Protein 1
Amino acid sequence: MNKPVIWSIAGLDSGGGAGLSADQRAADAMGVHLCPVAAALTAQNSVAVDAVFPVQSEQLDAQLAALAQDLAPTVIKTGLLGGVEQLRVVTRWVDRLRERAPVALVVDPVLRASTGASFADDDLLRAYREELLPRATAVTPNRREATRLVGEGCPQQQAPALGVATVCITGGDEAGPLAVDWLQSPQASGWLALPWRAARNNHGTGCCFATALAAALARGFAPADAAVLAKMLTASGLLADATPGAGAGPVRPSAGFITDPGLLPALFDTAPTAWPARCDGPPAVEGIYGITDSGAHVVALFGAGLATVQLRLKRAESESGAAWHTRLAGEVQPALDAAHRLGATLIVNDHWRAALALGVGFVHLGQEDLLALDTAARADLAQARARGLRLGISSHSLWELARAVAWAPDYIACGPVWPTLTKAMPWRPQGLDNLAWWAAMSPVPVVGIGGVLAPEQLVQIAASGAAAGCVVRGLKELPARDWLAAWRSGAGMPLATEPSWPHPSLSAL
């Protein structure tokens, strides 16, 4: 299969640290074909930028015209442009290319070198605001660049002012316990974080991040997922110790970043101060994870040997609060009594406050439920967690996995593994390849869910490395012993799928 083509229109760093050199390293690690287009030449080394020479607009235009004939891009990434004339060459080509086919534009507004040299005057700043950013799909400034573009303010205020649907304001150059970026996208917003790494080879981090985001878009990932991948790749490049000059060495991302669980970031809904603590001890769930809407069925499943069952009840729109709580208690109580009697685990879906009041110690929440929590509810849930409430969280994409990590749950569900009619959802099936990646990358046990209709599918989930597999309708169609035998068979197999690149579970744009 041909690699996706992206263009990087940026500066040539004579020291080999940032600009097109960094872009090429990032593109190679991301598995895309990069066309490096020089918009400016710099005289620099690892210590300082001595001079910047914008490429003549005719020369820049000629480079792009040649590429358009043979290597048309899926995504264009811009870095150091050198001046207003060069910026306008870029905008003209973006418009021309978009007349033929969709082309995403990722803007890395390189306005100042890490050594302090300024790359943008007032005219160029105005051109960015009025001409380039309105065409952008995503923009990736650091905090200082965002301030120059829109003025002072916190990232949550600066991002909307940039006027671009997807904004990632990077903050990894600010020392602290966490390297935190502010993400705003059509899919998700929040603080994307990893533990901060002290490294001298940090020259070109912004270039790597923007190129990785562009490459992820070219590979079909939605912008929020692309930001997760860009964060992972950039952090991977900080592990090397190569510092060939007297100053900072170049970031050197590794293609192996995609299967390094230590690089999976967390997506926080509020500004984080510490990395989430992991839950130590045996897996919270293991084996068959049954789901039913009947308390009596929960009792029967526990009696048949299932160790974990979720009670999933839906409240009718016409159902009054009192009637709902009476029905919920009537379904929960016998199931909870059976769990206590048999040493099994009852999990209640969604209704965590009511479940907690009824004595349930384990709840499951979807991503929509998490996002619906206001400040007070978040605090209450955190307090309940501190007092021992166990929590499972759904996930369907890379950014949802990252958000789940931020809550430090007891398990994370990955789905739908196969197409499912249980609920309407926009997600593409994860397949066994994504499930294997989830299981390898997640810091907590992973549960495979969605479309399991035959015991052979449960065998495959167990052989993917997942801690548990969900069965819903199948528990009413086949006896529990058939499902238990299937899980035992799969759990005894070697891993059937080695984790590699995940595939997108939602359309890119």
Protein 2
Amino acid sequence: MDDTVPCVSFIGIVDFSQEARWLYMTPSVSDLLGYEPHELRGQPSIELVHPDEMARVRKLHYDTIRQDKAACLVYIRMKHKDPHKGYVLCGVSRTIVHNVTVGSVSFANSGSKALHNASTAQEITVISPTPELEFRRWHDPSPMPPMPIPESLRRSFDGLDGDSSPPPKSDEDSFTYEPLPSQSFRTAFILDRFSVHCTILYCSNNLLITANTIEKRSFFDFVAKQDEDTLRTWIDTVKGWGVNERGQPSDGGFGFGKFKLLVEGRDHIAGDNRPPEPTPARQRHSSNYLSHTRVRQSRSNGRGHGSAVLPSRTASSPEGEALIVDAIFSAHSDGLVVILRRGTQS
């Protein structure tokens, strides 16, 4: 691996099932794995994982849900549609958002971009046997996993023991589980990264904002005026991180912050009074696809568990009801992901 590897990424959402079925993914999946979104939607994402890593990835998927994790990064091998390309080493980010896992998949690269992504993640797991991606955290005693015993030595040891039977399967090899219940009260937004106003393309549930009222509105419509300049700076910074060595849009690690979210948006902006922004041709399919998916999933995803109980709000302000929220920001080839949860007054 070297810095000539293209660093594209796509945003993906999977369910809580054992097979982690794709709910949708953005069009850049075709650049990275060769598939069109419609070929994967509803299919098990686990089936794209290298057979040697499948059991560990399924266990990791379960642990991520059960422990309600956020901003985690794992390195695994995923199957390309073209059999001649085999398996592609990928960095996969993941955050639990109520009843789905939201994240991205990107080409893994051992250069500065990978180091930055790893340094901003809350947790790093390297499943593929790739020493150059064994990043060390400040508090970890060692970045390296235990050294496997070579097959030739394993046979010698078996001969000494008088036992040539294969080693028993680990718990991970036979790991199964029933779908888990909803977890954190988080909401995921997918924004147009090529728009000055960060147009909302998708909202995952109704826990913070009524999702079916915000399509094509600016994300900043829902940010308190006092926080808007700060939010724009944060998002511009994350966009800057999400550029590879060739200046192409790519993944860019995680940024964290806190701001005041306006539940209904600003009255003077409601109704989308500003003229619509032109969408770059590369992104039109993405916007249409996400909008279609949002309408379809409004009946079946996190909003389909019945009427969601909204968290209590802060006192009303001149801008309407508001919430203090904690945010995770990340940039990807064809979108920005913002994940919010209710925060506390600092």
Protein 3
Amino acid sequence: MAESAVNAVLGNLSHLAVRESTFLCAVTLEVGLLRDELKRLQAYLKDADSKWRSGNVRVAVLVSQIRDVAYEAQNVIEAADYMEKRNRLKRGFMGAISRPS
């Protein structure tokens, strides 16, 4: 369900915040605000579960939209993490080949 997608984003977001906050202080506030919003969504999804199971169309649409956005957020976090690792590896490789012997 959408709750598990939001849980996954929260876990990755927390990991990202801890790792990056040492040198990106401005991002820390934004990550905190996003974490708070995701926790509100989590609480809503727990309450919405019974309505969703009973076939409430509005709740089903909203849960589907939340799930889609959570997956998209997860993809963005993974892409940013991949790019950061790739850049770090590239810097390390370029530094290794450009050093005088």
